[in-house]
Amino acid sequence: MSPSPPLITADCVALQLAGRQLLRDISVELTQGEIVTLIGPNGAGKTTLLRLLLGLSKPTSGTVWRQPGLRIGYMPQRLHIDNSMPMSVQRFLQLGQSDMKAVQAQAALDRVGAGQLLKASLANLSGGEMQRVLLARAASRKPQLLVLDEPTQGVDVGGQSELYQLIATLRDELGCGVLLVSHDLHLVMAATDRVLCLNQHICCHGHPEQVSRDPAYLALFGDKVAPYTHQHNHQHKLSGDIAGECNHKHSDTESGDKNREQQ
After folding, report:
1. Would you call 137 helix, strand, or coil by DSSP?
2. CB neighbours of 241 closer than 8 A, spacing ≥ 6?
């Protein structure tokens, strides 16, 4: 059986704006069934590259090819909700999908473990609840490619680990490719198939363990960032609170990494 064709291919892509080189010599391929994570320091061009891959902007040079009719489910980095605008989670899920029935909205929430939020007010959701609702909306489109920009924004470390596990489950259920943009290095390195380390160009790429030892990666992030594993005997509530006791197994640098993320 021949391998599936790529979903998106970028070949020698570069972008220059107002005389400033934002991206240079980027070549990347996204395929079905693979979780690819894009990491890099602030200002590395992660969001810029994301926009190029999705066709929201055009490169100065190079080409971006997308599979014809490619269905993309997109989860934004953050969503600002006007508290004065009453909107239920169900109504939010139905925006742009007028044919979505209540039973389908319920199923989308059930899939991400947020079934009880159907009638909740969007403005009253916690950070963890909002991220799951956004993920439910992106996945409800039955995408071939799920694009997630900082999907664990506003979620505590334990909740982040469970959210990454959920993303892997969705990948398996939907049979889709996943493109993650993240700065949660210690968590994301344990939850992805392939890492692209970006700093205007692709500094290094490959399996997380391989990238974590690459000199280019270490030059950007230092040798204090290690792949993170999280083992526990509890469940996190949607709000992020812990139900039960926790036993962690992690590198000695976890606390330092978490502090850097919060800065």
Report:
1. helix
2. none
Handedness of CA 42, 55, 81, 113 (dihedral sign): negative
User: Side chain identity at 67, as an amino acid letter?
Assistant: Q
| 3-state per-residue secondary structure call for 15-53 | EEECCEEEEEEEEEEECCCCEEEEECCCCCCHHHHHHHH
Using alpha carbons only, give the angle 52, 163, 144 rounded to the nearest 5 degrees: 45
**Angle, helices 102-111/127-139, rounded to nearest 10 degrees:** 120
pLDDT tens digit sequence for 144-193: 999 999 888 778 777 888 888 899 999 999 999 999 998 766 777 778 99
The pTM score is 0.79
CB 11 within 8 A of CB 62: yes
Q: Is 20 exposed, middle or buried (0-12, 13-18, 19+ CB in 10 A)?
A: exposed
Is-contact 152 160, C-beta < 8 A?
yes
Segments in the chain forming alpha helices (H): 46-54, 89-94, 102-111, 127-139, 157-174, 185-188, 208-212, 215-221, 254-262
